[in-house]
What does this fold into?
Amino acid sequence: MRTDPRSPRRAAILAAVAVCIGLLPAVGVAQLPISLLDDQTEVASIDFRFSGTESFSTSRLRREIALTDRGWLHGLQHALVILPLIDEPAPHPFNPLDLQRDVARLREFYRRSGFPEVALRYEVTLDQTHNVVDVLFVVEEGPPRTLASLSYVGPSGGALGEALAPELVRDWDGFVRQEMASLGTRIGEEEQRGFEARIVDWLRDRGYPFALATSAAREIAAAPNGDAADAAVDLTVSVDLGRRRRVGAILVQGAESVSEGVFTREFAFEVGDWYSARSVREGRGRIAALPVVSTAVAEVVPGSASDSTASVLLRVRETRKRRISGNVGYTNVGGMAFGGQWEHLNFLRGARTFSAGASMETGWGAAFSETSDKYARGSVSLRQPFVLIPGLSFVASPFLEYRDDYRDRSWEGGADGTLVYQYGALRAISLRYRLSHRRVLEYAVSNDSDAPVLPPGTGLDDLSDRLTISVLTLSATFGSLDDVANPRHGFVLQPILELTGPSGFPSNEYLKADLWGTLYRELGPTSRVAASVRMGRVVPFGSSVPGPDDDGRIDFLQLRDVTLMAGGPSDVRGWASRLLGPKIPDLQVDQGDTGPTYSASRYLPMGGLARISGALELAFPLPGLPSSVGGHVFVDGARVWTPDERYELEDVFDQTGAFFSTGLGAGVETPVGPIRVSIGYKLNPSVLDLRDASDVLAAILEGQPVEEIPAKQSRRIQVHLTVGSAF
It folds into this structure.
């Protein structure tokens, strides 16, 4: 609704527009009759057009301006206001004064960023029907200010390299070569501060804890022909080294039940070594990660003016030494889950952690998966935080486990021994050895030769019910995320390598390699894209390879603990967990008075010895809802197969090809991570994917082609409920 033309507020806006147009004729409102503006006019869209180079993304430039636009979801939000919890879209008023200020802000941003001759103008188009404007900023960056030369000056005014300790000359030459690679590139205030910060960091890591740096950029005189040399600068970085210092002492404040030596050993240096800020920072991080420590702060304290040492002062605060914790949760295939743990965080006064706990997945409520699991585990563990070197720890953990899942119903008892080397956030390498024994009470695959399924049940008596596990696992995590619980930017790479041995001792012998990588990228302030790829391969050897007279299918079933699978909330979301690819009906036999009867209410995943999968997801805000609530759309795909023909696995229903799904969902961010609901849609399902297991079993028993069973298109849809990041 338009306001009264005589209103004081509208009159002020019109006057401001007139003043702006009069004062800035070169940056005016393009073809905009100011008499049509009022205080209800909103910004429909803001866009940027570049004449020439484009050095910054539009999302980066939007952070420099005050005007905001409705966005592409405005219409949807307005249409959904009739629903509960959906509010009217927030207003995005058009203020001509803000528009002028935004031009000034953008111009200043470009000048600070090394574009002294930037030219900016805007175009504003009014939609009288909806009383909204489209704002277009037209940017011509002009030639950038480039770095023509770079020099480092020491405290006496001479070259910095001459003032450094002789043993640093080689490192210094390498540092200078690396920095000189920036010659000829754009330099702004941020880049100039970067040169200062990098030299300070380099020096503080090599014995100069109080080094400081300032820089001055000198414009090169304009060339007679007015070429790009006009925007070149000579950069001089002046450095105050301070005295080079060795570590004189490592002081600890706040230690109570933990001895000071337990903390000081986490630093990768000793008294008498040259001071290194990086080593101090990494040591503080390892100390802060000790469960017995709640906070840890490290700083450098200089000695006297004539002293060439510095002390490292560590302030710690210890937490409670004993704690009991419990949790209740939900997993997609395990349903309701419970757990509890008792911990002693300073066992035997060495910052060791002793814990005893139990966990279970009941299978209750696993409504989103055809293959619900039941699982219970009890264990004790002892963690030694320092083994020979800082960052290397050892965990010993005996355990007892019961499971009833798609593989078998069984007990397993044994112990894990794990060496973990942590060398940064999301950077770790671990080496684990497991020795255990599993007793299988009942295999999930039925042994009834009168009810053939794929693979046939004939010969399943050859499956061993007592398995010895002896496997060495090398794994690593390498990545960088802005938020571990709900990442928006960064990456994670996780390779895993398993090898059984010694030869002839374990029941299964194989080499298994698995690689999982995920990349996150922000698309503006509220959206992000995530891409995930996973590849794996199992190579059996020794006793796990079928002989000339063996049934290869039996050897394959014996490997079901390590076969690779796909499908689920963190994989291909159009399928239930593990059910993409090879699967068979879960045969149930009822021995009645008149003979056995057969049924199958679900499929059992069989997996394969090779797998490749990928996922691409776009996350975005939902209109009218809090910023913690968002939506997502995705495309996933995978292939699971067995390339080794010795296992005689027939692909009767074409289940070893590549399958794809798409879908959408919504989630809400919580302190423990996002809670998400995703709905996947199978794009190219297999014959079994569109038919119930009971119907498939009946067709097999009757000798009827499975393809003749009517397909159920509703089976294309799969729902997942998850807590935590999708990948």
The longest strand covers residues 408-424. Residues 359 and 684 are 38 Å apart (CA to CA). The domain at 146-240 is CATH 3.10.20.310 (Ubiquitin-like (UB roll)).
